[in-house]
Design goal:
single chain; Cytochrome Bc1 Complex, Chain A, domain 1; six-stranded mixed beta sheet; 32 helices; 23 strands; about 15% strand; globular; disordered N terminus; Insulinase family protein; metalloprotease; signal
């Protein structure tokens, strides 16, 4: 019943919203409807488990079946699951899961599971060498998002999201996919071609963070296969790979009985089932089936104290990484009977963890000895059932931080939670489950397919959201503090405890010191217990007199409406029931980065971490948590080029209070210093880690460097961080929160009249906003002069480098249509650069070309190409990027190149346009510049229709006769001349 555990985990790990979420097919019409094709005659599927037959995924489970899923099991052992789903419309999502990952590898095969993932895309029965990616692009699938794969310790999954689906395209895609899975071409030549790409991927992942992660994994999972089998493999085993050895691994594990296929989409599920049976029904494995290896159990060392069984401990010194400490209570993993009773136990476990995590967070907010701390139970790779405790000490006193964290946990182990605390967490859980039911109709097909894959991986069943809510509501009144105490104690019981500590300071700790600290007695600390007293919105001060509406009229797009208030606030509303239970709210105010002065970068950066936490009126961060208990509310803050933004996903019943919180932040901000001090500590700890890799250096310096050194976009250095104060923070942000103009966008499932009334009482009641300073509009970031390559240095591995080349473009609404056409050109550039770097440098999929065109300001755009590579390949990257830019300006791209780009773009826009967020993001800012509204009409054509000549003209405009600005990030101690010499040596040796 995997949905239960996943939904609970969302409480602690809220994923960021996609820029263009894909909701239900019943949403507003897509920009372009999919074409239909004649049906293909298919026999009735024979392997479907119909009637009273127990589907294979529910064997041994009393969890009620989700009737929307159909399951089948073929005679060759292959299992499948199919389901109709119209999210997004006209799409089918296919997942092929092979029950083999890095834990199935022999010592001589490390990395083979992941290498095979690459090989299947290299060449197969129906796809020639390097034809998989172009073929899927021609079918409208975007490489990397619609076409992808993953390898973990326990499985390999191939993922395909097919847009604009019809019977013929589905049949062709299933045929191609079957050729990849059943008959890849595993020749010596293909292995030789693909191994360098995998090694490049290994190199890009390497460095201090990877070394620390490897050391932690080796310690925590000592004695188990998981300790030494990372999916990426080793240079030695990959270098020794040959067609025969890779084929041996393939034949051992790529078998129908090890395979599960999931197909979900806007099509009759019986058709999906028939297609699977057509192309996989006669698949037979090669030779006899082989049992999976024993993954091993966590075992305490001989002589360990049963009351405190601390085993392996290790300290890793990495001078450029911040301190981090993890210890784990480990238990053997065993398959379970996925019953309702079992899931009720998981829920009590999750409540126990959430109670501890809230207390740990409260202590950190109050200025504790650690930046963050968290407890999480996890079943790791079918190898261990573990409870992990992780935290980041703020200073050198890791022992004090460990004592503080253990003290909070000791209190949870000694005394039950209060009834009030428990009721608060139960309310939070129920809100998550209720929202899942409300949003069931808008779950994307790819997400549903991934749910099945996850369930198969952990050997559990799946449950409908309604089942989860019913189970929870049926048990919530029986949950007692004593039960939670019992589950807490079980979570922290196990045969062995292991710990790993990463520190930048040599001599600060050793394995023996960790063991001593973990076995030392600790006093329960009840001071972190969080009060659960209720706070009501009804008791909060009003913002002002409800505002008067001066204008309300249709926007001219769909049924979207604009409402203006007398104080200057303007709102855009779209009430629709396309996405049940969802309401998106976005607030734009002020001037964004235009309002940031050259000396204010540190406060802009700290504001992104601390502005919301600093509070609203009398509500501090803890009070904000309490007032939203059991509610669906959010408070994301961001700085854009032309405005500051608040964003939240809420629901109709919480919309009024959500709007109040946002408006109150502007009207009556609180200035609690603790979030600012905590943000300073976080920035301080993170700063040194920027040096650990080329990616870290780019993350620190590229935003400013590519804008001609504009200090507003610079990462504050340690001196600036230390000099920042809560008083300075307030002095910077207080006047910004008074700035206008203010635009509020509300899109989703709400009642129009109620929303207008709530807006009048909140944003309409604000005092008129102050205008932007006259010089703000002129603060457009510049672009550096091309010429000598700018060189930055990292302190990571000597075989790592990064390179960036960029050209200036534009910004603003005036040429917005041209910016969309520019996206087509950039994608052509990206495809060419990917092919070139794979051919010349064995680069992985990292080369990336993108266009950034800020629509809020009149300029500041750029086209940039970036790659992570070896230092010796930096000159190759610049050569190839320059060559491609010149070629595009000199010669029009081919029609096939354009088709590989325009069809995925057309499908992407068509799918995204079925969702509220698409229209919200397209229309934001239109109250200030109404031209955005008219430009919507040409959006699809602008992104998907062009000519080779138009592309050449754009290339001449932006690349012709213009040298690109260059940036290289190379290891300390090397020079670009060294890299060029390395390149020459490589060429001479060929």
């Amino acid at each position: 019943m995997t949905f239960l555990a996943r939904a609970v985990r969302r409480l602690a790990f809220l994923a960021p919203l996609s820029a263009l979420a894909v909701p239900h097919a019943a949403a507003q019409p897509s920009v372009e409807a999919a074409a239909t094709a004649p049906a293909i005659a298919l026999p009735t599927p024979t392997a479907l488990q119909r009637g009273d037959a127990t589907p294979w995924i529910y064997e041994g489970s009393d969890v009620p079946r989700d009737p929307e899923w159909l399951f089948g099991k073929m005679k060759n052992g292959l299992r499948y699951a199919v389901r109709r789903n119209g999210v997004p419309p006209d799409q089918v999502s296919i997942r092929v899961r092979i029950d083999a990952g890095s834990l199935h590898e022999r010592d001589s095969e490390l990395g083979y599971a992941h290498l095979l993932e690459h090989m299947l895309f290299r060449e197969s029965k129906y796809l020639g060498p390097a034809q998989a990616i172009p073929t899927w692009q021609r079918l409208g699938a975007t490489f990397g998002s619609d076409t992808n794969a993953e390898t973990t310790p326990t499985h390999t999954v191939y993922k395909l999201d097919l847009p604009n689906i019809d019977a013929a395209k589905l049949d062709e895609s299933m045929k191609l996919l079957s050729g990849m899975v059943r008959a890849p071409v595993l020749s010596d030549a293909n292995v030789r071609a693909e191994v360098p790409i995998v090694l490049a991927e290994m190199r890009e992942r390497g460095g201090a963070a990877q070394r620390s992660g490897d050391a932690t994994r080796k310690t925590l999972f000592a004695g188990q296969r998981l300790a030494s089998r990372s999916p990426i493999g080793t240079p030695e085993t990959l270098g020794a790979a040959r067609g025969r050895s890779v084929s041996d691994f393939y034949k051992r594990w790529y078998r129908p009985e090890n395979t599960v296929i999931v197909a979900v989409g806007d099509m009759d599920p019986e058709v999906l089932a028939a297609e699977i049976e057509k192309y996989f029904g006669d698949w037979k494995g090669s030779g006899k089936a082989v049992a999976a290896p024993d993954f091993g159990d966590p075992v305490a060392p001989a002589g360990a104290d049963p009351a405190n069984p601390v085993g392996e401990t290790a300290v890793t010194v990495e001078p450029d990484l911040p301190r981090s400490f993890t210890y784990a209570v480990l238990r053997p993993w065993r398959p379970v009977q996925d019953t309702i009773a079992y899931n009720q136990g998981l829920l009590r476990d999750s409540l126990a963890q959430q109670l501890i995590n809230r207390r740990l967070e409260a202590r950190a907010r109050g200025g504790g000895s650690y930046l963050y701390a968290q407890v999480q139970q996890d079943d790791v790779s079918r190898s261990t059932d573990a409870t992990f405790v992780s935290f980041a000490p703020i200073g050198e006193d890791w022992r004090g931080a460990l004592t503080d964290v253990r003290g909070v946990i000791a209190d949870a182990l000694a005394t039950p939670p209060s009834e009030e605390e428990l009721a608060r967490e139960i309310a939070e859980f129920e809100q998550v489950f209720v929202s899942s039911v409300e949003e069931r109709a808008v779950l994307a097909g790819g997400r549903l397919a991934d749910d099945i894959v996850q369930a198969v991986d952990i050997r559990e069943a799946v449950a409908a959201p309604e089942t989860v809510l019913t189970v929870f509501r049926g048990m919530k009144d029986t949950i007692t503090p004593e039960q939670i105490l019992e589950h807490t104690r079980a979570l922290f019981s196990g045969p062995v405890i292991r710990a790993a500590y990463t520190t930048p300071a040599a001599g600060e700790a050793d394995a023996a010191a960790l063991r001593t600290a973990l076995t030392a007695p600790v006093e329960p600390d009840a001071s972190a217990r969080v009060t659960a007293s209720e706070i009501s919105f009804a008791d909060q001060p009003v913002i002002g007199e409800p505002g008067e509406i001066t204008q309300a009229q249709p926007l001219g797009v769909l049924d979207i409406e604009r409402v203006d208030f007398a104080n200057g606030v303007k709102a855009i509303l779209w009430s629709n029931d396309a996405e049940p239970g969802r309401v998106a709210v976005k607030v734009r105010f002020g001037g964004g980065y235009r309002s940031v002065g050259p000396d204010d970068a540190v406060y802009a950066r700290l504001g992104q971490m601390a502005l919301v936490g600093s509070g609203v009126g009398e509500l501090g961060q803890d009070e904000l948590d309490r007032i939203s208990t059991g509610r669906k509310m959010g408070f994301d803050f961001a700085i854009d080029e032309g405005g500051f933004t608040f964003f939240a996903q809420t629901r109709a019943e919480d919309l009024e209070d959500q709007l109040y919180l946002f408006a109150a932040k502007l009207a009556m901000p609180r200035w609690d210093p603790n979030p600012v001090l905590r943000a300073k500590a976080a920035a301080r700890l993170a700063y040194e880690s920027y040096f650990t890799s080329p990616a870290g250096v780019l993350g620190r310096d590229l935003d400013s460097a590519i804008r001609d050194g504009d200090p507003r976009y610079a990462t504050p250095d340690l001196a600036a961080i230390e000099a920042a104060t809560p008083e300075g923070f307030r002095a910077f942000w207080e006047p910004i929160l008074k700035q206008g103009p203010v635009e509020v966008l509300v899109f989703g499932d709400f009642q129009r009249e109620a929303a207008v009334e709530a807006l009048a009482k909140s944003f309409g009641a604000l005092q008129p906003r102050e205008g932007l300073a006259q010089d703000v509009a002129a603060r457009v970031p510049g672009f550096p002069e091309a010429g000598e390559t700018k060189v930055l240095y990292h302190r990571g591995d000597a075989n790592q480098a990064a390179a960036v080349i960029a050209w200036p473009s534009g910004g603003g609404v005036t040429d917005l249509r041209e910016s969309r056409q520019l996206e087509i050109l950039v994608q052509v550039f990206n495809n060419r650069l990917l092919d070139a770097m794979r051919e010349r440098a064995g680069a992985s999929y990292a080369p990336n070309v993108r266009s950034e065109w800020p629509s809020d300001i009149a300029g500041g755009g750029r086209i940039s190409a970036l790659a992570q590579l070896q230092p010796k390949d930096v000159p190759i990257f610049f050569e190839e990027a320059d060559r491609i830019a010149r070629d595009l300006a000199a010669t029009p791209p081919t029609a096939d190149e354009l088709e590989r780009v325009t069809e995925p773009l057309r499908q992407y826009i068509s799918r995204a346009s079925t969702g509220n967020l698409f229209w919200l993001f397209q229309l934001e800012g239109s109250t200030q510049d109404p031209r955005r509204i008219g430009l919507l009409r040409s959006l699809l054509n602008d992104y998907s229709r062009t000519t080779p000549q138009a592309m050449q003209a754009l290339a001449q405009e932006y690349f012709g006769g213009r040298e690109g600005w260059r940036l290289a990030v190379i290891p300390q101690g090397q020079t670009l001349a060294t890299a060029k010499a390395g390149q020459a040596t490589q060429r001479g040796g060929r």
